[in-house]
Amino acid sequence: MTETPAPRPLRADARRNVDALLEAARTVFGTSGVDAPAKEIADLAGVGVGTLYRHFPLRSDLVKAVFQRGVDACADAAPALSAAHEPGAALAEWLLRYTEFLATKRGLASALHSGDPAFESLPGYFMGRLGPTLGTLLETARSSGEIQADVTPEDLLYAVATLSQHGVAYSGRMVALLVDGLRYRAVSGRS
Amino acid sequence: MTETPAPRPLRADARRNVDALLEAARTVFGTSGVDAPAKEIADLAGVGVGTLYRHFPLRSDLVKAVFQRGVDACADAAPALSAAHEPGAALAEWLLRYTEFLATKRGLASALHSGDPAFESLPGYFMGRLGPTLGTLLETARSSGEIQADVTPEDLLYAVATLSQHGVAYSGRMVALLVDGLRYRAVSGRS
DNA sequence: GAACTATACGGAAAAGCTTTCCGCTTAAGC
DNA sequence: GCTTAAGCGGAAAGCTTTTCCGTATAGTTC
Questions:
Q1: CATH of A66-183, one of 1.20.120.450, 1.10.357.10, 1.25.40.20, 3.40.50.1110
Q2: What is the CA radius of gyration of chain A?
Q3: Nearest nucleotide (C1') to alpha carbon of B36
Q4: Which of B 97-116 lie inside 8 A of A, CB atoms?
């Protein structure tokens, strides 16, 4: 369907600048928050604002790109974890990795659900990339008998993401509570 | 300590305008999001932007005020609920009321944790007002034997607030999971 | 390896939003 | 009704994002 009509190799310096911008943005977002002036990012990347806006027409496009990079890295980490640990441990390890990733995104994660239409596509990307990843981990753990309840990957992903906004220590406690809920799900027959 | 040095009765038209602004802001935030231009709010309230900024020097002050109004209303609802229902039911009813309140705040609730220093004081107010409220409900329910685990009001309050950002249906499911966790807390002796 | 051309760059200008300022209006007290 | 100080409206200032365009340069051709 949506095939690439004109792939355009993208010039070498352009590619370098895009990378520098992404890296600079990640840093600046981490220190000054997602609302930091675009100029600050361009300066750190060593380019003009014009270049920034050439590659990311809207400020929010840059925010999205940085977020997606992080999501990709997180998803890519799963197979290795899954191969190196038992199902239950792999799930736990990955959730930890996921939590740590989210911890660096503070304002970013909240912007995701701020109602701003610019970020509407993010949850979809997030889900499409991480949903299957966690889904596999979860199903494997359930098959091995370590998990009782059936929670959807989507629900759990969202829950941990949102909970993480309040700090690592806090999210650790609440995620533990959620996992307890998964293990000892009420047997009183509620759907 | 912090006694009112000069209470200043506040002129009648001023009081009326503050109220109109608060009401207009609540509406506009609900429809256009918390980032709606200040002009839009001033127009709906039928005043000039100067008036808006006289009463709320920073844009964020208006956001804070609207949020606090909602928090107050929610806290004030507890005693009546507590008097009209059994401990467990009162807790459930209040959490529902609380969830519904949060549902109307979308972007507002996320702004709360966006890292913006302007909103730093909000969690404190939020906690000071709602913490004791939920604390009482929770302790009463625990005394009645309906709840096993000891979760702090703070943790639960935050958890539900954050979870609610994803929609009423979703938060309903996740809150149920949390409550199951409270009832059937793991006995494996983890601190 | 020099010339050519389309791509990309930088930063100045435009547009939009928040916040400030100040002359005019009006509520409150006498 | 007159006085006066609180309060009002909207124009102007200050910042940020976003656009524009003349200039520079990677990639290609001879």
A1: 1.10.357.10
A2: 19
A3: C17
A4: 106-107, 110-111, 113-116
